[in-house]
């Protein structure tokens, strides 16, 4: 009898011990966060994996499941998952789509998580952070940013006897330098500044213009300010010819023209740095893009967001805030040359600013003072296509700027629905 009782006790203790161990293992099981992105496709995948490794070491209770999809398929897949109730916990959005998704109500407002996690917003550039707020709510964090600056060929400036661009330059100063450089030879041009919608919406703001009226209820693309702006842009091609026509380009791209030493200035993004560092055999630098009545510079950024219906918002926030605002992630980006983190850490920024060329890398950050974001509406792609074809007609001389913008205004009013 005693042996039976002893055996029952032993079996019971073994069972209780096993159950307790199972409960402990379950309670310690890491939470898995799904993260969908497009920007780490290709060579950048190793850098995101590096961020993940450091994050998981610092947060052993959280595991990150990274899924990378090419940009071409990304938003179709994302929309399908959101509609089907299987959206990832966190994901990446370019700015144009960010605004649309925020207004559709599928993103989580992060303010309460800022408070709960005592998130220090001062480590992020204020302008970059504010870009991911919509109607007073913070729906995203900046993962990275790029902007557009004025690149210039110092050798051509020296040959033309033109002063180098400064932060005080206006369109007038830029034009004078372009004309001096154009005079150097038939195959040398002063500037290349694309005439398409992506540049036009920014350049009109350098002249106090806009695509919409103040409350975005109507288009004003053929306003006097906008016509004046397009006239200035077109005249550089068709009148003073400081910018090459399509025929003069002969299929050559703006970067190729710059690297060949045949254009004094080019307005393009800082993502050109690696190409120009590798391929330019002349001295070059950058400056803040000139304006007319004021300055305005492009701001391109991808945001990190959380699915509104995620059951793991707390852990997802730890992940996206690490990618956006941690010193470790920022350093990985800077060292890899994978865009730029929108952080304010002096030591991280110093390591970036120390890299040359260009000598004036501080311009990249100074330009953030004047950032403008794309004029996002639900039919953004259609709007861009309509504007693009009319701007192209003006660039090629098929229509005057007045005619082109009048036609664009009419077509937009017919085909695009605002509020």
Write structural notes for this entry.
The chain is an alpha/beta fold. It has two domains: 30-144 and 301-358, D-Maltodextrin-Binding Protein, domain 2 (3-Layer(aba) Sandwich), CATH 3.40.190; 147-298 and 372-415, D-Maltodextrin-Binding Protein, domain 2. 47% of the residues lie in helices and 15% in strands. It is built from 19 helices and eleven strands. The protein has helices spanning 2-27, 45-58, 71-83, 95-104, 111-116, 126-130, 154-160, 171-182, 197-203, 224-238, 246-249, 254-259, 273-279, 313-325, 327-336, 346-353, 362-366, 380-395, 401-415; strands at 31-37, 62-68, 90-94, 133-134, 137-138, 141-153, 189-192, 263-269, 284-287, 297-306, 371-372. Strands 1, 2, 3, 6, 7, 8, 9, 10 and 11 form a nine-stranded mixed beta sheet that branches. It has a two-stranded antiparallel sheet with strand order 4-5. α2 (45-58) runs antiparallel to α15, α15 runs parallel beside α16 and α18 (380-395) packs antiparallel against α19 (401-415). The longest helix has 26 residues, at 2-27. The chain is globular, with a radius of gyration of 27 Å.
Main features:
419 residues; alpha/beta; 9-stranded mixed sheet; two-stranded antiparallel sheet; 11 strands; 15% strand
Short description:
This protein is of the alpha/beta class and 419 residues long. The chain has helices spanning 2-27, 45-58, 71-83, 95-104, 111-116, 126-130, 154-160, 171-182, 197-203, 224-238, 246-249, 254-259, 273-279, 313-325, 327-336, 346-353, 362-366, 380-395, 401-415; strands at residues 31-37, 62-68, 90-94, 133-134, 137-138, 141-153, 189-192, 263-269, 284-287, 297-306, 371-372.
């Amino acid at each position: 009898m005693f042996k039976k009782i002893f055996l029952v006790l032993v079996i019971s203790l073994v069972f209780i011990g096993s159950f307790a161990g199972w409960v402990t293992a379950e309670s310690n099981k890491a939470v898995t966060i799904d993260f969908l992105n497009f920007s780490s496709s290709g060579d950048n995948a190793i850098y995101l994996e590096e961020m993940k490794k450091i994050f998981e070491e610092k947060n052993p209770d959280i595991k990150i499941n990274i899924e990378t999809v090419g940009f071409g398929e990304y938003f179709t897949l994302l929309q399908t998952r959101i509609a089907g109730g299987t959206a990832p916990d966190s994901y990446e959005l370019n700015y144009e789509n960010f605004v649309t998704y925020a207004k559709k109500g599928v993103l989580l407002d992060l303010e309460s998580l800022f408070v709960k996690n005592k998130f220090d917003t001062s480590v992020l550039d204020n302008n970059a952070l504010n870009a991911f707020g919509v109607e007073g709510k913070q729906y995203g964090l900046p993962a990275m940013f790029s902007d557009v600056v004025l690149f210039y060929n110092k050798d051509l400036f020296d040959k033309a006897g033109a002063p180098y661009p400064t932060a005080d330059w206006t369109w007038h100063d830029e034009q004078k330098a372009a004309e001096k450089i154009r005079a150097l030879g038939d195959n040398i041009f002063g500037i290349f500044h694309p005439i398409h919608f992506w540049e036009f919406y920014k350049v009109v703001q350098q002249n106090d213009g806009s695509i919409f009226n103040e409350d975005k209820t109507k288009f004003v693309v053929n306003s006097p300010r906008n016509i004046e702006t397009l006239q200035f842009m077109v005249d550089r091609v068709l009148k003073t010819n400081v910018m090459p026509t399509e025929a003069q380009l002969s299929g050559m791209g703006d970067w190729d023209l710059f690297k060949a030493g045949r254009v004094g200035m080019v307005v393009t993004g800082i993502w050109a740095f690696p190409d120009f560092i590798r391929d330019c055999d002349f001295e070059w630098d950058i400056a803040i893009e000139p304006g007319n009545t004021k300055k305005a510079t492009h701001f391109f950024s991808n945001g990190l967001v959380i699915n509104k219906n995620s059951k793991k918002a707390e852990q997802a926030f730890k992940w996206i805030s690490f990618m956006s605002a941690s010193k470790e992630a920022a350093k990985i980006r800077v060292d890899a040359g994978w865009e730029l983190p929108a952080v304010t850490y002096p030591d991280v920024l110093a390591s970036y600013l120390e890299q040359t060329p260009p000598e004036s890398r501080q311009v990249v950050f100074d330009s953030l003072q004047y950032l403008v974001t794309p004029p996002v509406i639900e039919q953004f792609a259609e709007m861009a296509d309509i504007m693009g074809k009319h701007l192209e007609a003006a660039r090629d001389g098929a229509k005057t700027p007045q005619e082109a913008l009048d036609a664009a205004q009419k077509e937009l009013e017919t085909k695009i629905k605002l509020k």
